[in-house]
Design brief:
Length: about 170
């Protein structure tokens, strides 16, 4: 132990944060990048631009990117040779198992039988209504969830109706 009498213990919060993103140079359209306050976005356009205040200065990269959760468009500039925070983004399809009584959270199950309990119902009324009505009618409701930077949101849903074979 150091003189201070404290043993070093790795923080699980640090490990969890480290698994949410990597840091490296982004090269391609359709890659992911974090802009502003760690908003995970998908890059739609990359341009190399000169600094308008110093035309002889270093060039920069301009990214036009779309927020994976809201669809909002962002523009961000980064150093031409620098690195960026690159979020780990996953898209997963789940089947709806239950809607909590307070109408805010849902219980989901993936195709391997793993439960997901920390996903909120979407705030977009049309999507929220589709999920709630399909579930109330006893239909199989499936949702697509995007996860990034410690956040998970339902971004799409569909209801599967089974037609009985009249044989």
């Amino acid at each position: 132990m150091p003189d201070g009498g404290h043993a070093f213990e790795p923080s699980s919060k640090t490990d969890a944060k480290a698994s949410m993103y990597t840091v490296h140079q982004v090269e391609d359209v359709e890659d992911y990048v974090c802009v502003r306050n760690n908003i995970p976005c998908k890059i739609k356009l990359i341009m190399t631009v000169k600094n308008p205040k110093n035309k002889d200065g270093p060039r920069k990269r301009l990214f036009v990117a779309i927020d994976v959760f809201t669809g909002k468009v962002f523009k961000a500039t980064f150093s031409l040779t620098g690195t960026c925070v690159v979020p780990r983004v996953t898209y997963t399809e789940y089947q709806l198992v239950d809607i909590f009584e307070d109408d805010s959270y849902v219980t989901l199950v993936d195709d391997k039988g793993n439960l997901e309990l920390n996903v909120k119902l979407p705030t977009k009324e049309a999507l929220r209504s589709l999920i709630k009505v399909g579930f109330a009618e006893g239909k199989d409701v499936f949702v697509s969830v995007v996860s990034a930077m410690g956040r998970a949101e339902i971004i799409a849903s569909y209801v599967r109706d089974y037609v009985q074979d009249p044989k």
